[in-house]
Amino acid sequence: MPIALDNLRVGRKYQLVNMGEVRQVEIIARLRGANFKVKDLDTLEFYTIEELLQWGIGKDYDIDEIYR
Fold it and tell me: Using CA atoms, how far apart are residues 50 and 68, in angstroms rounded to an integer?
């Protein structure tokens, strides 16, 4: 069961799976509501959660904390 976006915490790392894409991200800042600024740990680019989910949530959607 995926974590609700409201339960994400700044400074923690998460793995996001959506529509076949797997991304490992770190939450940098909470912007407004359930939107966050995130840093992709593979490419070091910055995104918002809204940008990553703008095309909808697929059947494979999952977000879990990385404990490493």
Answer: 25
Domain locations in the chain as residue ranges: 5-65
- How many Å apart are CA 33 and CA 17, to the nearest integer? 21
- What's the pTM? 0.89
C-alpha 10/C-alpha 1 separation (Å) is 21
Give tens-digit pLDDT for 24-54.
999 999 998 889 999 999 999 999 999 998 8
How far apart, in whole angstroms, are the C-alpha atoms of residue 4 and residue 64?
10
Could you list the beta-strand ranges (E) of 1-68: 13-18, 21-32, 35-40, 46-48, 62-65
Q: Which residues pair with 33 in a beta bridge?
A: none
CB atoms within 10 A of CB 20: 7
